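Here is one such tokenized protein:
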Amino acid sequence: MGIGEPPQPAATSQSSDGGSSLAEGSGGDWTAVAATVANSVVAIQVAGSDAGGGSQGSGVVWDDAGHIVTNHHVVENAPEGRVSVLVDNQVFAGTVIGSDAPTDLAVVVLDNQPASLVPLARGDADALRVGDEVAAIGNPLGLSGSVTTGIVSALDRPIATGSGANQAAAITNAIQTSAALNPGNSGGALVNRAGELVGINSAIATLNGSQSGNIGIGFAIPVDLTNHIVTQLIETGDVAHALLGTTNGDGTAILNGVETLGAQVRTVEPGGPAEQAGIQVGDVIIEADGETISSSRDLVGTVRGFSVGQEVVFKVIRDGTVHEITVTMGQSPNL
């Protein structure tokens, strides 16, 4: 916001995706990280109607082609898909070219990309560990370029990122962080000590439905899921979501004398991927592709990360015995 002298640029190196990250040996201090990512995160404004209803959020520079990644909920009401992107006190027009409510991700393309913008290097979300230090960069409450720090509080945390009727569909397995997130941080970057993108900030926990702001529990969509979705949005403007072909609820099963949490299969779609593979009503799914499943939300969030046609090994408890079942994921007709 222009208070004080601007930080000096940190030494950077090119990542494999063309973005910049901290050079080896730069120490990874947060001052250097902030300087490195300053030109890779933008503010997004969405105009309201005559009755009001405008919104604001953040976005991450994805590539050199003018693509900005943000949240679906930031741009879903953009008039005719048009938004304003703020860069260095200048306003640039952009168009939403694809948006995916189930993962709360969207892509905006700039009409003209300023030369100052730099794609943000992408890290490896699978390398994150609970306790790792991270920083959130975005536009909270309209305060562009804000940086807050914290740690990874939990991984694979299933969250509903929509509201109302969208709650059931918009479930992803998120990174939980203590870095302060507030309204306006949505769509911004969560970065590691190397200044690499590890997640797209998406949601904050609230008390009693209050929107008062940060309480130390924020959530970000992992960069690997983001890449999976954004690649499709850029190429086609749409996303093909994987389908298991079951409806599920939270359940338990006894294994080796111990009650084990999982997602209990309530119905199986006739002719669907699950039925063809041999999953049955009453099975309790406890693992998918090596990821522990402890609830129906866990299962939904995990399936969100699979690709259509991908072969996935599910572990289910049936009659006290673990069965491994390989399912070829189908395509959801409803997402």
Remarks:
- The first strand starts at residue 12 and ends at 14.
